[in-house]
Amino acid sequence: MAAALWRVHVHGHERLARGPVETGPVELLAEGLSVDDLLAGSAGTLEYVLDGPGAGDLPAGATVLAPAAGQEIWCAGVTYLRSRDARMGESAGSGDHYEQIYHADRPELFPKMAPGRVRGPGEVIGIRADSGWDVPEPELAAVADHRGRVVAYTIGNDVSSRSLEGQNPLYLPQAKVYTGSCAVGPCLVPVGRAPDHAEMRIRLTIVRDGEAIYTDAVSVADMYRTPQDLVDWLYRAIDFPVGAVLLTGTAIVPEPEFTLRAGDEVTTEITGLGRLRNTVEVVGAVREPAAGKASG
Asked: In the chain, fewer beta carbons within 10 Å around the N or the C end?
């Protein structure tokens, strides 16, 4: 079993560790080493670190963190045909822009989470209190270094309010960006040690009250674009000194009758990358609208 890179919390400190995708971290790496260092190009490559000397067995009580630290989390949209069709359907006849963006040279890209806000394995993900239709969006996450090269993969969940997005495309930031709306993990698998992205398969399972109420799977080969192509567009006019994480889009779209509830357990598995499991909570509050609207 090839070793992957894990970010862990040990005795009050963040450390990097290595261990198999299937079973988790087993050995600490050098103290002071970080994901930021690796993606900034100041500490060697991921492969070099994974093959280098260790710093002792992982202590008992260590917890796994999201494998992103100072990286911004971005998303790509409408990269699968199924996603295009779903977005057009939920837009109540005003979804021509989704058809156009699917075929356009320039992809849809949007910021998802600022550094430090993303949730990791085992942590809770959120659904908005003011949204009645909320879904997970399981995605292959491309991890790019400071030069814009895809150097690793992990799993991402772009949790979304489809009710807000369907009302008006300009509500996209509110539908996508809020507390707990993104999780990544469990670890970083260097591109050279992962299956080719076209050979990966994404599987989603949602459990409610101990029963699997939704399952679906899709091949990443169905994606209209490649991860590197999407990252190239992201880096065209923005610098990422410590790299970035780009979720590459989803093709798993639950039917309109389905919505997440508090307490649901959401698990995404991707070939060669392990599994990301999170439970759901409601975030925010429903507020009464103001008596009047300000003009402007």
From this structure: C
